[in-house]
Design brief:
3-stranded antiparallel β-sheet; single chain; Aminopeptidase; about 25% strand; alpha+beta
Amino acid sequence: MDHVATELVAAANAESMKAQDTAGVLVGKVSDSDALPVVQELMDAIWGPAVVLPRNVLRALASAGSCVMVAERRGVPVGFALGFLGWDGGLHLHSHQVGVITSERGTGVGLALKFAQRALCLTNGVKEIRWTFDPILRANATFNLTRLGARVIGFYPNHYGSRVDAFNTGDVTDRVMVSWNLRGALDVSPSALGASGEALIALGEEGPHRSTALPVEGSLIPLPLRYHDLRSNSPALADAWRVAVGRAVGDTLDAGLTLAAIGAEGYVVGAGLP
């Protein structure tokens, strides 16, 4: 490992420990077979039984040295991260799941888990992490694009098909893929890019729908507030938002552009990756 790489690993480990200290948790890799049920219990508590991986699969991932991590607060498990290596488009960690129990969300546990993943990857010479998230969720988008500085690199309509879990039952599982350059800067200012073009979603009396505007740098893709609440209280309006956002995001990526930033109203379209 050269001098620059050594310094980067040291900095990543220091940032990981700082994030854990700030959140008041300890993040550790799971390698002991007896600890695997803890991961399963967290999966069940966060998403429900439909997404709990079999113990033998978790054991295989842990035995291979994959990223199976648990965050604990005073010895009580409060979150986990699960990932494995991928090769398409270059070596990377695919972060399959990062989950935090309901009572601990917003306390920095998720950030501590992501920073622990970053430190683990850089220690082992892996310089990129990829994962998918639901583009209609503001909080997830802000965390991924602004707090971490990840970049959207793809859009996958109904990526997981029909799912039965705490968040996705009865919904279309549209997802965007993001790439996190682990050697890049953390924290991307949301004011670095402002919306200067037309909105790609029109908000009328009939509900949101894809506007006639073509995506260009500076276009705005509005997002609804508190989408999960909307699904519970007004399913038809939530469905309209899902269709409109999916079409706008798909058109943007098809045009060679990307979701470059997110602000108070929604996404700002920017230049795609070279």
